[in-house]
């Protein structure tokens, strides 16, 4: 059991790092599983684990950005007394949540309808490698294009329109279809293309992760059922705890990094990793 928990911790580290850096958490988890395999849990549990482990990463966003996403005013009783029930909601934050929900629509609708189809077709090392390379190139091309771009960038979430949110949601759909694309990578690319600054694109990606990943986790739990063995419960909890702790550090690092640097380093990493994966599995 100790060895299984150690493996879970390793997967938690991988999830915490790769969920927020635009290099694909699902892709890395699937690839890591080729070399590190659970022996005391079922294949069905692994299928659920690699998604539900993201719940720990979600909690990291909630903790770090609680003030930015908590939609209620501080003094609810006073607000209701003076202005009525609706005044307990912060209008600016509720507007942000409206945009987040709009961005969730494409992946939620298509993902629910075709999740099993996408998994059967594309969840394999070769497709992951191709997605890593293609979106790695996209990061480099878009960052080079951004350097020549004229006009002011959108620096705050209040500048994001509902149309912008829907476009970002369409890019998120690519990650739902192709593992290796990276959910954060796809949405950041979408944000950069429509004129968001790097920090703004990254933060909106973090917010968008909350309903998206929570929904995906609940869907996988329902499909798996709740008949866990003792070992499975321990493995899942360790994975989520480690991914939470690592995510805290990684999110702070990323936001500090992109204030002075672009995303091209992640593009180069994706290309190199994709080539290595293709070589390993094809040769």
Using DSSP, what is the number of strands? 0
Count of structural domains: 1
- The amount of beta strand, in percent, is under 5%
Average of per-residue pLDDT values: 89
| First-to-last CA distance | 35 Å
The largest sheet is:
none
What is the CA-atom radius of gyration, in angstroms?
Answer: 19 Å
Contiguous helical run count: 13
Question: Which stretches of 5+ consecutive residues score pLDDT under 50?
Answer: none
Share of helical residues: over 70%
H-E order: HHHHHHHHHHHHH
Q: How would you describe the shape?
A: globular
Structural class: mainly alpha
Short description:
By secondary structure, the chain is mostly helical. It is built from 13 helices and no strands.
Give a structural overview:
With 283 residues, the protein is mainly alpha-helical. The protein has one domain (2-282). Helix content is 76%, strand content 0%. The chain has 13 helices and no strands. It has helices at 2-18, 25-33, 43-52, 54-64, 66-69, 76-83, 91-122, 125-147, 162-177, 183-193, 198-224, 230-257, 264-282. Helix 4 crosses helix 12 and helix 8 (125-147) packs parallel to helix 10 (183-193).
